[in-house]
Specification:
With 349 residues, the chain is an alpha/beta fold. The chain contains four helices and 38 strands.
Length: 349
């Protein structure tokens, strides 16, 4: 791409784009700023990486508008834009060819029930199983080894990577991506204790509903509801190795990082950000826009929108930081207490 083409493309999404430096550069690749070479396009959005801006060999660098370029630009070009990160994402999408998992059509080893309603331009990989009364929408790709049990509905233009399992009755919307090893609709963890100390399994007769434009990482589990539905709302993104238990609701455009666990019947609002290894107890509610820090233990509801919480047990970040500050002072406080005790003992004697 030429710089003129890059600018014209970005002007679809941003206003007041400013270009500094060499305008005749040609872009062949994208790269990380610390290792970029001539012909590469790169970006800086995190202040930690601004130290690489003056020395990078990249031909074009996307930078924030507020960043001062107090050095020789040489044969490089710099594009100042409101959000360099999302601008880089747009260009990465344009410059990267789509990944083709399997060719169009149905592999000869796939086992597909005669009652399946199949859309147009569907791709079905080797050793796929699709049960009775399922629906697969137009343009959907189902990778090798994937199992879809009876009564499942998969929408249009979805991509299921190899070895995904969708249990019976679950419903998937359009443009959903599910990565390898993920399980949708396994039984919720429901067991009733009996007088003799053993447990009686509670029938899990609900389903899982995944709305449009959700992306689910590898090896995560979303359990079916005991009654009703476990729901992942439109646009949510869930990382690898996450557990979502029965009857949970994950809000629209909420993101959950790896190794988090959400206990049964918990509702997480829209546009929340959940960091890695967070644990939620069951039957609580998290308001819209809440940010949850890594390794937090969320043991109660947080109904104030937009707040940041962290710690175990989780609490508002300001209170949690005060407690952290006190903990750091404990050794010093202990020494002072011991000194005071020694003085008191001396006075008594």
């Amino acid at each position: 791409m030429t710089l003129t083409e890059i600018k014209a493309y970005l002007e679809q999404f941003f206003q007041d784009i400013e270009i500094l430096g060499e305008v005749s550069v040609q872009i062949e690749r994208v790269g990380k700023i610390e290792g970029a070479k001539k012909g590469d396009l790169t970006f800086v959005s995190n202040p930690k990486y601004e130290k690489f801006v003056s020395a990078t060999q990249a031909s074009v660098v996307l930078v924030p508008k507020k960043l001062e370029l107090n050095f020789e630009l040489n044969d490089r070009a710099f594009i100042k834009v409101d959000d360099p990160y999302i601008a880089f994402v747009f260009l990465l999408e344009k410059m990267s060819p789509p990944r083709e998992m399997i060719p169009l059509g149905v592999h000869s080893t796939a086992v597909i029930s005669e009652s399946v309603v199949m859309g147009e331009n569907v791709s079905i990989g080797a050793n796929v199983y699709i049960g009775n009364n399922c629906e697969v929408g137009d343009g959907t790709v189902i990778g090798p080894g994937t199992v879809i049990l009876d009564g499942v509905k998969v929408g249009k233009n979805c991509k299921l990577y190899p070895n995904v399992t969708i249990y019976d009755g679950c419903r998937l919307g359009d443009r959903i991506i599910i990565h390898s090893g993920t399980s949708i609709g396994a039984d919720g963890f429901g067991f009733a204790p009996k007088p003799d100390g053993s447990y009686r399994k509670i029938p899990q007769i609900g389903i899982v509903v995944i709305e449009d434009e959700v992306e689910l990482g590898a090896n995560l589990c979303i359990d079916r509801a005991t009654l009703g539905e476990t729901v992942v709302r439109r646009g949510a993104k869930i990382d690898n190795l996450v557990q979502v238990a029965h009857n949970c609701v994950i809000g629209s455009n909420t993101v959950i990082a790896s190794q988090a666990g959400v206990s049964g019947s918990t509702k997480i609002g829209n546009n929340c950000m959940v960091a890695g290894q967070v644990g939620f107890v069951g039957h609580i509610e998290i308001a819209d826009g809440v940010n949850v820090g890594a390794k937090a233990g969320v043991s109660k509801s947080f109904l104030e929108k937009g707040q940041t919480i962290r710690g175990a047990p989780a609490q508002a970040i300001r209170e949690q930081m005060k407690q952290e500050a006190l903990l750091r002072k404990l050794p010093e406080m202990m020494q002072r207490i011991q000194a005071l005790e020694a003085e008191l003992k001396a006075l008594k004697s």
